[in-house]
Amino acid sequence: MQKTATYIGTNYEMNDGAEHYELDPPYYWDRYDYTEDCEVLTLVDHVIVSAVDVPFSGPETYIFQCDETGVVLDWSEMPGSFRGALDHERALNGLGYTSKITKAIGA
Known about the structure:
Order of helices and strands: EEEEEEHE
Number of domains: 1
Distance between the termini: 29 Å
Number of helices: 1
Strand content: over 45%
Mean pLDDT: 90
């Protein structure tokens, strides 16, 4: 089964390089929750991929869990996040998904 990340839109509240995707099937994220001090398995069906050039540290592309409206739910960097380039496709591939754009960007 192919895993796809369908482009929903740009999240201008974060930055010009932040885009919202819906994951199909959802991603099972096994991570450590420092607030609860335990391992947590989270079902993630929407993400924001943010690609920015940060002063003094350079380009980075990070993936964050968000809700269906694009509001970030967890600022922990998800698998696929990386530093050194601005590349949504590479980040989504690192998460195990292929991006799919179903409408013209800006439409």
